[in-house]
Amino acid sequence: MSSGSSNVENFSPQTIRQVQKELFDLASKPPEGIKVYINEEDITDIQAVIEGPAGTPYAEGKFRVRLVLGKDFPSSPPKGYFVTKIFHPNVARNGEICVNTLKKDWKSDLGLKHILLTIKCLLIVPNPESALNEEAGKLLLEQYDDYCERARMITEIHARPPKPVKEGLEEDPQTSSTSCKADGPTSAKKHAGDKSKIMDKKSKILKEKKRTLKRL
């Protein structure tokens, strides 16, 4: 990838100003479920995190996406990529996104917000007719439950931040300090052992899911 300064120099001052305005508007008033990250060194390096919509196999996932502006932007659309791995009919294995808004339906005045919202909508309503991932498109049409399970598994492994381990470790706030003092090192050792068992169990489940995916 070219350096930030050389990439910016590919664009007219007018285009740079327009992109800056759109990005700062998105940062100050973000659409629901979308967070934009501004690269101060290269304003044309556009990255955002899209939250997986509720009621979809992508729910609770956080997906990083990237828009790549060509030198003839906005006359031609940017290319869109999922940086976070995802199982979706309209996303190729290299992360490239197939969206009509980014291709034949593009209009120079649509703007970056429209593109990001369109990508989010694609998580809710995939389009198997323009599939870049044929396997995902075929499952969506013929075995919807299997498609959902596969998409959900990929989301859980790659798009969900790890949750803090709390199971079985909650303490009564009124007695926690006294019990720690009374039990001393023995209590601390027991809690460490409980936490270790839970982490081992979660690790085994995750490894098993990854092995299942490799066999698919």
Q: What's this, in brief?
A:
The chain has 7 helices and 4 strands; from the N terminus they run ααββββααααα. The chain has helices spanning 4-8, 13-28, 111-124, 134-142, 144-158, 176-183, 185-215, and strands spanning 34-37, 45-51, 62-68, 79-82.
Discrete helix count: 7
**Count of beta strands:** 4
Task: Identify the overall geometry.
Answer: globular
**Biggest sheet: strands, sense, closure?**
4 strands, antiparallel
Oligomer: single chain
Q: Which segments are poorly predicted (pLDDT under 50) over 5 or more consecutive residues? A: 1-5, 167-192
Rg value: 22 Å
Pfam families: UQ_con (PF00179)
Catalytic activity: S-ubiquitinyl-[E1 ubiquitin-activating enzyme]-L-cysteine + [E2 ubiquitin-conjugating enzyme]-L-cysteine = [E1 ubiquitin-activating enzyme]-L-cysteine + S-ubiquitinyl-[E2 ubiquitin-conjugating enzyme]-L-cysteine
GO molecular function: ATP binding; ubiquitin conjugating enzyme activity
Pathway: Protein modification; protein ubiquitination
